[in-house]
Amino acid sequence: MSLAQAQMIKLEPETVTQTFANQDLSDPTLQLQTYAKVINLSGQKISLRWSRVIVDQPIDWETQVCDNSLCWLPHISSNIDAMTGANQPAVIEADTSFEIGLYVVPNGASGRGKFQLVFALASSPNTPIDTVTFDISVNQTTSTNDIALNDIRVFPNPAVDYFELNTVTNVDRLMVYNLLGREVRAYRAYSGQQYSLTGLPDGLYLVSLINDRKGVVKTIRLNKRSWRP
């Protein structure tokens, strides 16, 4: 590129590094926003083409770019692209700036992604003049419900005639399966309830704890054995 082209715009910062910690990834509307500033140094109005390059990202993530014209759909990787029909240059007046946003929709997945926005003049779309890199990490929070589920246990274990749950918070039903996957018992969950194992042979079983809205929320191994003096 020529020296004149190299000095037409400035990006601040050149690398955007951001960690989004303690995110509720169960929220389907979660959208995480990062920005860089595009500064016009040319002394004249210019029209820019940007191209989004996905260097690496979790497979479930989606990203979209919002420039000073509009927010583009995730499948649009450039504001000027004959393949998609996009043709909306980012116009920037002399000695002004605008923020360009890269929005991440994690779709339930934590992880780390790296992206680039490559800028060129709309009149020379194949000649890059500057690039901003986005290095984004997303970490999941541990909800109160998750903590409660981790604390649920069955007792006694091993069991002889019955077992109990120490809490039925977030649990509506229990299903007991043998190791062949056959259902051998089913119960409604009640506080202080004893769940009978009478008639079942000794061995290892799986107790699935079920929330009527969320489905199976936890499965616990239970050992049944006969009483021995």
Task: Outline the structure in words.
The chain folds into 2 domains: 3-140, Immunoglobulin-like (Sandwich), CATH 2.60.40.10; 144-224, Sandwich (Immunoglobulin-like). The strands form 5 sheets. The protein has a 5-stranded mixed β-sheet, with no helix packed on it. The longest helix is centred in the middle third of the chain and has 8 residues, at 144-151. It has 229 residues and is mainly β. The protein has 2 helices and 18 strands.
- Continuous helix count: 2
Q: Order of strands across the widest beta sheet?
A: 2-11-10-4-8
| Average of per-residue pLDDT values | 88
Instruction: Provide the gyration radius in Å.
Output: 28 Å
- CATH-level-2 architecture of the largest domain: Sandwich
Structural class: mainly beta
How helical, in percent, are the residues? under 10%
Biggest β-sheet strands, sense, barrel:
5 strands, mixed
- Give the C-level CATH assignment of the largest domain: Mainly Beta
Count the E strands: 18
The end-to-end distance, rounded to whole angstroms, is: 88 Å
Percentage of β-strand residues: over 45%
Task: List strands and helices in order, with pairings.
Blueprint: H1 3-6, E1 9-12, E2 15-23, E3 32-40, E4 46-56, E5 62-66, E6 80-81, E7 86-87, E8 90-92, E9 97-105, E10 111-121, E11 128-140, H2 144-151, E12 154-155, E13 162-165, E14 173-177, E15 183-188, E16 195-196, E17 203-211, E18 215-224
Parallel strand pairs: 2-11
Antiparallel strand pairs: 1-3, 3-9, 4-8, 4-10, 5-9, 6-7, 10-11, 12-13, 13-16, 14-15, 14-17, 17-18
